[in-house]
Amino acid sequence: MSAPTDTITQAAPTGVEPPAPRPESRTAAVLALARFEARDLLLQIPVLAFLALYVGYVAWQLFTTGDGTGDFPVLQDVDRATQATSMLPAVAVFICVNRAVLRSRRHSTEEHFDILPMEHWRRTVAHALSVLPCAAIVALVVGVQYTWAALRPGAVGHGSPAELAVGPLVVLLAGVLGVLLARVIPVGFLAPPFVVGVFVVTSLVSALTQGTHWVRWLGPVVEDMGADPFPSELLGRPAAWHALYLTGLAVALLCAAVLASGGRSRLVTSATVLAVAATAVGVAGQSPGEPASLIAARDKASVSPQQVQTCVRHGRSTYCAFPEWEGRTADWAASVDRIQSRAGGSAGGERLTVRQRIDARYGLQSDAAIPPSTTPGTVTVGTRWGGNRLPEFAVGVASVLVAGDEKTAGQMCDARVVTVMWLALSTQSDPLASLRNVRLDDSIKGSAVALAPTSPVSMSAQQTTVVRELLGQPRYSVAAKVKAHWTELTSPKTSTARVAELLGVPAGGKGTAADSGSGSCGD
């Protein structure tokens, strides 16, 4: 029987560090922390509230058409319209990410991180990655918003992927900025005043520089709204350069946060150089103003649209539109046909030319008025359609049928206005609502100005009363009287009282000089 042997255990040498974690385990740890922080970020009350407000506002825009123009969207305007609303979740993400990075300081646990295998700068990267789900949510909403508009039967134009990318990039940039601010200035209450300060400084810079092109494009969102929709080739927006600028700036700020956290590796240094270079290239690309070729193209489209338009025939009339709006000519033709079917004399068979016109010479922010055409039988239509644009276009068509051309129609303030307004509004689905919508003061009583694509039509109180009475009558009975008395109804010498008598409605009291047919404008 052998003697028992003793088991000898050799003690580990002191002063030897445990083996370093493998690179893949470090990456997995960063991603795990990023998932935790992302979930915590999405559960923060400000983020939840602002995301709900953002999604609710976009949903309200999608399911309500406002004045009706949402039924006929122009996609090169829709992509820009997705940008400003992204500032709502961006502000909440900035504040909450900043607080998340400073959580350890608030709870006095910062010193415990020194004993963990994950370096300080890796935690910074994890906090920056936690912003990605919020940016993804905004990207999803932007995609739904644009797709919803693009699938509408009346949609025209072409959107830009670079314009659509701005919203998610703004949220990503805001989150990274929140991380950087926490690493550079670790003060918990600084984020909200910082937002207010940025707003104040931005407003002051904008006022001092008077909207200089290169200064405006340094901001995260540049909508350039105000003018009627332009054809895509006339926009002249450096959208791709701006997307590159925002992307490079976000990466550069992340690298700065990593460097401030002690992550001074060769990879971080190289990424910083590339990000700064991309930001500089983006700034250089977006800074130049509008080139001479764009200005010349806008002048050409504004002054001589016939040189860049395509004309098609529908029935007896010709319809000329910019290439992206060719599919809308059938809608214009249907409106013209309805109006002409109620007109008498030669107007019922007149060959009109409906031409789309814009004034792009003053840029995307200027809502410039379109001068009336002096060419007989030419009717102007804009690049917007739907809602109030329908009765306004109808007023323009009826004015040309009665007065001959748009410039003459703009000077018309006699009793012919009654004929014009009845022709235009009797073809609408709700004539009285259209009368209210087409008038500048949204009224159906008293004197007012009725809008048209070019020159408006002035209505006296008596003319308004007669038109309102006519719209309450069966339209086909009034149409028969209009055709029977067309010559007298379209004469500048006919008084409003006589027009009412011919059409079988009350005259509405004593009229003005214009109502009497004397040709003097005034009320």
What does this structure look like?
There is one protein chain. The chain is mainly alpha-helical and 523 residues long. 53% of the residues lie in helices and 5% in strands. The chain contains 22 helices and 6 strands. It has a 4-stranded mixed beta sheet. A two-stranded antiparallel ribbon has the order 5-6. The chain is elongated, with a radius of gyration of 33 Å. The chain starts with 22 loop residues before the first helix and ends in a 20-residue tail after the last helix. Mean pLDDT is 89; it is low at 1-16.
Gist?
The chain is mainly alpha-helical and 523 residues long.
Strand-helix topology:
Layout: H1 23-42, H2 45-63, H3 75-81, H4 87-101, H5 103-106, H6 120-129, H7 132-150, H8 161-184, H9 191-209, H10 213-216, H11 239-260, H12 266-286, H13 292-303, E1 310-314, E2 317-321, H14 329-340, E3 353-356, E4 378-381, H15 389-403, H16 406-410, H17 416-425, H18 431-438, E5 448-450, E6 457-459, H19 461-471, H20 475-484, H21 486-489, H22 496-503
Parallel strand pairs: 2-3, 3-4
Antiparallel strand pairs: 1-2, 5-6
Helix pairs in contact: 1-6, 2-4, 2-7, 4-8, 6-11, 7-8, 8-11, 11-12, 14-15, 15-17, 17-19
